[in-house]
């Protein structure tokens, strides 16, 4: 046991300094909940530049679910991320450092340059007829144009919808059709592990089907020939050249409650949902978290390794650090390419100060690159963060010892696409916190753990993690709602936001997250809904029904396990299983690789026709006992068939 862990065991009553840190936190925290409006008003005033101050901090509450923040307030998020730093004299400071997959490919944008490029692309979008409120879908790899396109949308009040490049055809089509975007921004290819992989061709089919798209703007990333549709498709560099340099684009003043962006995420049922975030509330909250958790300063080189196609990248590669005036680092390639020392090479090369990564990356680096970190000078690092899934003690200790040299504590942060920013983190003496420990709600966040019947749990008892009061970073809405916000987040307990995660809370308001309670799978830190995969499988001509669950995987955290029944006269051949695996990977994207598929003669259903997933989860994980109450199962004999099939396929 290291010293840090030893101290952890009696941390709450340890040294006077830890007491004072704890009491300081408690004081701020208690005040924030006693008078949330005063607390958030102070945060918004201090952290955000407003064109017009708000009339009311908070309108509505969770009981009515109509919540809006800072109404009457007006601002522009891109000018908060760019112009205001120039006004403070930071024009020559690096805003964005880009490391391409090849080591010698580096680009640096100062704040001035990033503003110039943002204005140019904003003007391109305006020329294409994009106005405030229009939606722009962005399907780009980790290249500077991705950040520029997002900021350009924010500048003119267009709503961006970034789609992760690990998604392809069907997943992409669903995400464009749903929001009716008018412009699509992509790249010809992506660099992946030394290969050049076509990207735009993934979008060609979906674009032909999505009538709303009038223009597709393509970044040239390689020399590869791709097909362009005349009149619809054009090259980014040609559009930018036409704009010239120096035509300033006036930021559009937005209402605090206007939408800044939408981002698709998976729930337990149905199609992925487009989560909408507001301009004023989101920016205030993200900047609050940057102050409280990362303590950004202008000298920081902040590297959040998450792809910008996910919320982590939106909040902590783009809006948070740029809003705070720090320097962001964007890396195009894979953690293990060309060698598993790549991350440490980058940290040393640029003097990264803040590293925010995911347990999935840590697992891969531990597994393939043990000992390599020691060859690099990592002394610039002052902060090690983790996000996306629970970090286990092995990963935590490796990160702490090998990368933090037993000096930098690992800050495990919990949050969700819907929360906009970090909600729980070890805020009090993180150096005393070990793996899984010390997560406290940020000031302003009224977190609790409830039993299924809605009673607050006693210390140590597991239950559902809930949030009892609105906070400015919370999702504004879900696109085309149809009652989904109510169903997804507020149906478990009246007037309380249900996170869908299970947790335990100690008497000292320290939280430990134990996992998802719904049908969401987290693969390498990426959230996928089982329903989306099931609808892909059932669209295959040979499949009748499908049920998907997540099973543990030592590298990816979780992977897909699917049970399928085939149609009449379809033979259950090994060849078909391979075809289905391939089909899932092609239609969802590379994120959905290495799935396991098992034939079954029937799925276990309750008498009311619901698939009993908990049973399937157990069988997929080789747990053939402890099925719990199966009295509602319509035909209990299916269990034997499922178990035998599982044994055969293992
Ligand atoms: C779900 C949200 C938060 C940005 C990245 C994922 C899981 C997230 C942790 C953590 C345990 C975590 C939860 C959550 N999760 N961070 N530190 N410890 N679990 O955002 O795609 O919306 O997924 O990720 O289950 O609900 P997301």
Which features characterize this protein?
disordered N terminus, 8-stranded mixed beta sheet, alpha/beta, ATP binding, binds 5'-O-[(S)-butoxy(hydroxy)phosphoryl]adenosine, 650 residues
Structural class of the helices, strands and pairings? alpha/beta
Q: Which percent range describes the beta-strand content?
A: 15-25%
Shape: globular
- Main beta-sheet strand count, sense and barrel state: 8 strands, mixed
Assembly state of the chains shown: single chain
What's the alpha carbon Rg, rounded to whole Å?
A: 24 Å
Q: What ligand molecules are bound, each kind once? A: 5'-O-[(S)-butoxy(hydroxy)phosphoryl]adenosine
Name the average pLDDT: 91
Kindly state the percentage of residues in helix.
25-40%
- By DSSP, the count of extended strands is 32
Total count of helical runs of at least 4 residues: 20
**Low-confidence residue ranges:** 1-16
* Main β-sheet, spatial strand arrangement: 12-11-8-6-7-14-15-25
Question: How would you describe the overall organization of this protein?
Answer:
The chain is 33% helix and 23% strand. By secondary structure, the protein is an alpha/beta fold. β18, α14 and β19 form a beta-alpha-beta unit. Bound molecules: 5'-O-[(S)-butoxy(hydroxy)phosphoryl]adenosine (WT7).
Helices and strands in order:
Layout: H1 3-9, H2 16-34, H3 36-47, E1 56-59, E2 68-71, E3 74-75, H4 77-81, H5 83-87, E4 94-99, E5 106-110, H6 111-127, E6 135-139, H7 144-156, E7 159-162, H8 169-177, E8 183-187, E9 189-192, E10 195-198, H9 200-209, E11 215-219, E12 233-235, H10 236-243, E13 254-255, E14 259-265, E15 273-278, H11 279-294, E16 301-304, H12 311-323, E17 327-331, H13 342-350, E18 354-357, H14 359-369, E19 383-387, H15 393-403, E20 410-413, E21 424-425, E22 440-441, E23 447-450, E24 462-467, E25 477-478, H16 484-489, E26 497-505, E27 511-516, E28 520-523, E29 526-529, H17 530-539, E30 543-553, E31 557-566, H18 574-588, E32 596-599, H19 613-620, H20 638-649
Parallel strand pairs: 4-17, 6-7, 6-8, 7-14, 8-11, 11-12, 16-17, 16-18, 18-19, 19-20, 31-32
Antiparallel strand pairs: 1-2, 3-13, 4-5, 9-10, 14-15, 15-25, 21-22, 23-24, 24-26, 26-27, 28-29, 30-31
The protein binds 5'-O-[(S)-butoxy(hydroxy)phosphoryl]adenosine.
């Amino acid at each position: 046991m290291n010293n840090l862990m030893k101290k952890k065991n009696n941390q709450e009553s340890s040294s006077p300094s830890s007491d004072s840190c704890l009491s300081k936190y408690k004081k701020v925290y208690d005040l924030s909940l006693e008078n949330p409006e005063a607390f958030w008003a102070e945060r918004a005033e201090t952290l955000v530049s407003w064109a017009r101050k708000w009339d009311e901090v908070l309108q509505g509450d969770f009981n009515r679910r109509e919540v809006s923040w800072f109404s009457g307030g007006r601002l522009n998020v891109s000018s908060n991320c760019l112009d205001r730093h120039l006004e403070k004299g930071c024009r020559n400071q690096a805003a964005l450092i880009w490391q391409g997959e090849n080591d010698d490919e580096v680009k640096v944008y100062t704040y001035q340059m990033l503003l110039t490029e943002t204005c140019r692309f904003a003007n391109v979008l305006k020329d294409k007829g994009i106005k405030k409120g229009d939606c722009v879908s962005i399907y780009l790899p980790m290249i500077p144009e991705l950040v520029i396109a997002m900021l350009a949308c924010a500048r003119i009040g267009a709503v961006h919808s970034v789609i992760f490049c690990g998604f392809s055809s069907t997943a992409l089509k669903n995400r464009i059709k749903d929001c009716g975007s008018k412009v699509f921004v992509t790249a010809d290819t992506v660099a992946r592990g030394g290969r050049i992989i076509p990207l735009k061709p993934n979008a060609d089919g979906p674009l032909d089907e999505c009538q709303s798209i009038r223009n597709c703007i393509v970044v040239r990333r390689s020399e590869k020939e791709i097909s362009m549709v005349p009149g619809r498709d054009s090259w980014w560099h040609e559009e930018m050249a036409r704009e010239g340099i120096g035509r300033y684009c006036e930021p559009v003043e937005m209402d605090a409650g206007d939408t800044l962006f939408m981002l698709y995420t998976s729930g337990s049922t149905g199609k992925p949902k487009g989560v909408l975030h507001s301009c004023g509330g989101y920016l205030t909250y993200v900047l609050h978290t940057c102050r409280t958790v990362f303590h950004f300063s202008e000298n920081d080189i902040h590297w959040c390794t998450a792809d910008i196609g996910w919320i982590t990248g939106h909040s902590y590669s783009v809006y948070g650090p740029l809003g705070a005036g720090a320097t962001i680092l964007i890396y195009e390639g894979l953690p293990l390419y060309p060698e598993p020392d790549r991350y440490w090479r980058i940290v040393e090369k640029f003097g990264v100060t803040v590293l925010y990564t995911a347990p999935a990356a840590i697992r891969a680096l531990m597994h393939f690159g043990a000992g390599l970190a020691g060859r690099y000078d990592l002394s610039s690092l002052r902060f090690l963060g983790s996000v996306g899934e629970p970090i286990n003690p092995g990963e935590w200790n490796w990160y702490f010892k090998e990368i933090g040299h037993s000096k930098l504590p690992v800050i495990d942060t919990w949050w969700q696409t819907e929360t906009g920013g970090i909600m729980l983190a070890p805020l009090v003496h993180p150096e005393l916190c070990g793996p899984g420990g010390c997560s406290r709600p940020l000031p302003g966040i009224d977190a609790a753990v409830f039993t299924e019947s809605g009673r607050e749990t006693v210390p140590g008892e597991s239950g559902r993690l809930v949030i009892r009061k609105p906070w400015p970073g919370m999702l504004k809405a879900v696109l085309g709602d149809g009652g989904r916000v109510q169903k997804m987040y507020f149906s478990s307990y009246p007037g309380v936001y249900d996170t869908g995660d299970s947790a335990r809370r100690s008497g000292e308001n320290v939280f430990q997250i134990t996992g998802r309670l719904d049908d969401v799978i987290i693969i390498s830190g990426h959230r996928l809904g089982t329903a989306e995969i099931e609808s892909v499988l059932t669209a295959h001509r040979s499949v009748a029904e499908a049920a998907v669950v997540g099973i543990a995987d030592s590298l990816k955290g979780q992977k897909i396990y699917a049970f399928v029944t085939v149609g009449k006269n379809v033979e259950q051949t090994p060849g078909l299983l391979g075809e289905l695996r391939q089909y899932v990977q092609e239609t969802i994207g590379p994120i959905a690789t290495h799935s396991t598929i098992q034939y079954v003669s029937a799925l276990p259903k309750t008498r009311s026709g619901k698939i009993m997933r908990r049973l399937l989860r157990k069988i997929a994980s080789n747990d053939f006992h402890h099925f719990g109450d199966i009295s509602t199962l319509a035909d209990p004999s299916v269990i034997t068939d499922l178990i035998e099939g599982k044994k055969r396929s293992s």
